[in-house]
């Protein structure tokens, strides 16, 4: 970052940071278990459709707004409509960052435990791990501390350089695991489940889960891309950068599924096992694989790093907001936000068997999500809040700021956007808000 407020050093700098935010537990942990719970291939198809027709055009809108005003989400909205109630949409984004981090950090903590487990050759015991109150709390605290330390010292140097090396390694490793997995005896049933859609499986919940996952995985709906777009140069083609991020992100998720489902069916496991899926299936795969112990260590190290580049971005949104808008000292704010997140996340950490109360919390009805506190937070912040935030932000971009101004901003530096300009304006003003709105209504049971 060069200038006073900071700017990505190059086009690749943005792509790596944004892809680092997008690629994470959402791809390797959340995507497969949602596919498993929501009936397989039909969900996959819906998900890809949402990424293309909603996620990507919407992402251009967030990036354009950020680059235009050069602020965090709250500041961006204030700059366009000073003093209006729209600022609450920005605040929602800031809260959502903390909300997602509060459960995401718990899962990230599990990945750290699995690095150790693989290293000592213990491939099982998922249930014991996640129901041990001390272990999960300490692991969660460790991951939040790690995230804070990096955000505290600035993101630029280490993490960017490391992700340039490690993300390609992750790609290669996943590719090798796909080959191994699809060659297992009985893998074809898994491929069928994953790739051959049964459209009767599509319900309101499935549609919202697919849309929610598209936003979650691409880090959309909470202003992260506003924040990251604010560090982008005007000369850059934000459409092509955004397309790369979307492509890499979708590929990693798709690859994770290509490993999990063939392996899962070959081993006769249940695809709808929920959030524990990846932590049960991958170790089983490593346990029977020649050299599986080393592969397992490498896999969980890469997964932890992928999670870390996402938790950094989640923490960066509230921190950037406090620093920009309240002139708070960055270092103090990092610890304050981390502390709040930890307290807020403890119930999630304890909700996988450690505490009976949080395990069967069940405030949000069962037709929407599982009763444990972690699943409830995942639904509230990861699905609902991101979809609602995206609804409000698309209206803000398309109608309040103005789709024409937004399109001008996108066009600056972009080649070939001119032909699609009219289509994009239609999408951001009508199509995207309408589709999200209908899906949210459906969620509240309006069409049943
Ligand atoms: N996209 C991340 C993942 O898929 O793991 C999660 C995430 C990060 C969501 C940042 C939202 C966000 F702003």
Explain what you see.
The protein has one domain: Sodium/glucose cotransporter, CATH 1.20.1730. The protein is 75% helix and 0% strand. The chain is built from 18 helices and no strands. The longest helix has 39 residues, at 373-411. The chain starts with 10 loop residues before the first helix and ends in a 5-residue tail after the last helix. The model has no long low-confidence stretch (mean pLDDT 92). The protein binds 4-fluoro-L-phenylalanine (PFF). 4-fluoro-L-phenylalanine is lined by residues 21-22, 24-27, 100, 216-217, 219, 222, 224, 310, 313-314.
Distance between the termini: 51 Å
Helix and strand content put the structural class at mainly alpha
Q: Domains counted in the coordinates: how many? A: 1
The unique ligands bound to this protein are:
4-fluoro-L-phenylalanine
Mean pLDDT: 92
Q: And the CATH topology?
A: Sodium/glucose cotransporter
CATH class annotation: Mainly Alpha
Structure at a glance:
The protein has 448 residues and is an all-alpha fold. It is built from 18 helices and no strands. It has helices at residues 11-22, 25-37, 41-69, 73-80, 87-119, 126-130, 133-153, 157-182, 187-195, 204-217, 224-229, 238-266, 277-288, 292-326, 330-349, 356-359, 373-411, 421-443.
